[in-house]
Design brief:
single chain, 482 residues, alpha/beta, FAD/NAD(P)-binding domain, Enolase-like, domain 1, 5-stranded mixed β-barrel, 5-stranded antiparallel sheet, globular
Length: 482
């Protein structure tokens, strides 16, 4: 066992997208940075979540789109080439190697220490390396925590003994189970139900509430659930799992007992009931924080409760928005803030300032890559009601667009725009339908900039594209006002 010690301006725990961006931006601000990672650089998103899941989803959704295109249906009616789908997924995940990420880190002059890093008092991190060495790191300025999240397992008797799938197994598996039970009704649950049903599993989706995607507009969940059922998924609402067991040995089927008294038998069970902060074993107790908890931050991403403000947290671990793109946004802002504070420069935290976290509060975009796609940004009607916000709600049936008719025969979709009734500004947008993911950035710009109806009237969408929905929403609002 050998010991070594090193000092940097900034230490970053976690090399997922948020951690990588934080290290990069602080280095760009002229500070020395080191990143600590115990697994693969690129984190959950690159290897077990966003990228491999979308690689699996793309052929599924493309085939669904093709089946709606006249003249192409016969070609698309055959089964998916499963080995090729898996091979493409493996390629996207770089066969679970991170050499390219290591090369990138070197190119931006950020050091790397591989191993498990734990805080050991203020500005101190001790890393137990894979070789069994101990490296002590000291931060002159900041320790940034970007350790992300892990699967939150429900308290179900027998769950530990059945080797449940998490998002990792669901996105990395290379064999199709005959029967797959999925517990949950959120994004991971519906996306993985879409994938594995199309690949040949008989999927049973077990949802605790009465809808899927319950944080989005209700029509979004209804349309996705209906599509899953049409594809053959057995969707069961208002059920919980009370017990699970592989009764006939470790490789036997999983017997799942439900709160309704019914039971389900599956070859694998995927737990997709939520995420928990990956902070249980990073030494939070050594700096006065509770292990295993979310890290609450202020609007400059400083962790609350830390004397002298030397700890920052970006990405999922701060529980503001559990999405890769938002974690990267936070890291870019936090990196600029850390650099400015290190140089004793004033912060520009005005709405459009370099150190403002505006988008965290008003315009968090999200895509669900199902069939149909779901995209949303800003307020939903339920959120507006819960906060007492008055909104004008404008709906439009996407099937009435010339662009959607061109896109697919029998197109089904819906758009909703929420407006401030006094200012006429866009507060939230939801689109559901094939291909609507490409509308999300325009919606995000509209919400972020608080675009008005009068301004949007002069942003002309091309004909015949699905983006013409913006014009139709504005017309519907105008006609109702008249």
């Amino acid at each position: 066992m050998s010991d070594s010690s090193r000092t940097y301006d900034v230490i970053v725990l976690g090399a997922g997208p948020a951690g990588e961006n934080l290290a990069d931006r602080t280095r760009a601000a002229g500070l020395t940075s080191v990143i600590v990672e115990n697994e693969l650089l690129g984190g959950e998103c690159s290897f077990w979540a966003c990228e491999p899941s979308k690689a699996l989803l793309r052929p599924v959704v493309a085939r669904a789109d093709a089946l709606r295109v006249p003249g192409f249906r016969r070609t698309a009616e055959g089964p998916l080439d499963i080995p090729t789908v898996f091979a493409h997924r493996d390629k996207i995940a770089v066969n679970w190697t991170d050499d390219d990420q290591v090369d990138w880190l070197k190119s931006v002059s950020v050091d790397l220490v591989r191993g498990h890093g734990r805080l050991d008092g203020p500005r101190q991190v001790v890393v137990e390396t894979r070789e069994g060495d101990s490296v002590r790191l000291t931060a002159r300025q900041v320790v940034g925590v970007a350790t992300g999240t892990v699967t939150a397992f429900p308290d179900v008797p027998g769950l530990d003994s059945v080797r449940p799938w998490t998002n990792r197994e669901a996105t990395a598996a290379s064999e199709v189970p005959d029967r797959l039970a999925i517990v949950g009704g959120g994004v991971v649950a519906v996306e993985m139900a879409t994938v594995w049903q199309a690949l040949g599993s008989q999927v049973t989706l077990l949802v605790r509430g009465n809808e899927v995607l319950n944080r989005m507009e209700p029509f979004a969940g209804k349309m996705v659930a209906a599509s899953l059922e049409e594809a053959g998924v057995d969707v069961r609402f208002e059920v919980t799992v009370t017990e699970v067991a592989r009764r006939d040995g470790p490789d036997s089927p999983v017997h799942i007992t439900l709160s309704t008294g019914d039971s389900v038998t599956a070859d694998e069970i995927l737990i997709a009931t939520g995420r928990a902060p990956h902070t249980a074993d990073i030494g939070l107790e050594t700096v006065g924080l509770t292990p295993g908890g979310w890290l609450e931050v202020d609007d400059t991403y400083r962790v609350k409760g830390i004397e002298d403000g030397w700890m920052y947290a970006v990405g999922d671990v701060n529980h503001r928005a559990l999405m890769t793109h938002q974690g990267k946004y936070q890291a870019r802002i936090a990196g600029a803030i850390i650099g400015a504070r290190a140089q004793d420069e004033p912060l520009d935290t005005e709405k459009w300032g370099a150190h403002s976290s505006t988008a965290d509060h008003t315009a968090v975009p999200q895509v669900v890559f199902t069939d149909p796609d779901v995209t949303c940004v800003g307020l939903t009607t339920a959120r507006a009601e819960a906060t007492g916000r008055q909104v004008d709600v404008v709906d439009f049936d996407l099937a009435h667009l010339a662009g959607s008719v061109q896109y697919a025969e029998g197109y089904r979709g819906k758009a909703r725009m929420l407006l401030d009734p006094e200012r006429g500004t866009v507060l939230g947008v939801t689109f559901v339908g094939p291909g609507v993911q490409e509308l999300l950035y325009s919606a995000t710009v509209a919400v972020t900039t608080e675009a008005t109806v009068e301004q949007l009237w002069h942003a002309v969408p091309a004909f015949p594209t699905i983006s013409e929905v913006w014009l139709r929403l504005l017309e519907a609002y105008r006609d109702r006002a008249e």
